[in-house]
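Backbone-to-sequence.
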């Protein structure tokens, strides 16, 4: 019994000390610098299928992304609850980190979109979710533009002003 326990403990220590993927709990990658249409948290995007990008960082040499998952929600609360009510890409096997085209529900003028990304490293271990990012949609249709003329556009009314000399 003692020998069996010793063997199990030795195997566990060896697995934890080695570069064994099953022993790693944390991913070797961290997704950062989220961008939409090449900008950080842009306002007034006119593209109905914006392109999303991020950078993966690692302290481990030779690390790389093998998959990603993008979550996009209509509110910060929904994003925090991991409810991608606008788009959940699901796990996509890809090393691509730039120009991921939004493929969710149609976006409306003035709509706010909150998003985050998770990536998988070369060992197949998922990272934590990135810090949240956001963007807002611009006015997409001519009917969305609402404005009134600012200025005095009526004929001037004769005002009763005290007689003052007119200087020329």
């Amino acid at each position: 019994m003692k020998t069996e326990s010793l063997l199990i403990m030795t195997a566990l220590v060896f697995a934890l000390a080695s570069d064994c993927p099953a022993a790693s709990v944390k991913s070797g990658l961290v997704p950062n610098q989220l961008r939409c249409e090449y900008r950080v948290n842009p306002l007034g995007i006119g593209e109905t299928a914006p392109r999303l990008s991020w950078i993966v960082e690692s302290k481990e040499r030779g690390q790389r992304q093998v998959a990603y998952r993008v979550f996009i929600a209509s509110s910060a609360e929904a994003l925090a609850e991991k409810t991608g009510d606008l788009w959940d890409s699901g796990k996509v096997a890809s090393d691509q980190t730039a120009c991921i085209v939004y493929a969710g529900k149609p976006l409306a003028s003035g709509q706010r979109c909150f998003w985050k990304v998770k990536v998988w490293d070369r060992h197949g271990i998922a990272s934590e979710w990135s810090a949240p990012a956001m963007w807002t949609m611009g006015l997409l249709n001519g009917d969305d533009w609402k404005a009134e003329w600012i200025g005095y556009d009526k004929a001037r009314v004769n005002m009763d002003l005290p007689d003052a000399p007119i200087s020329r």
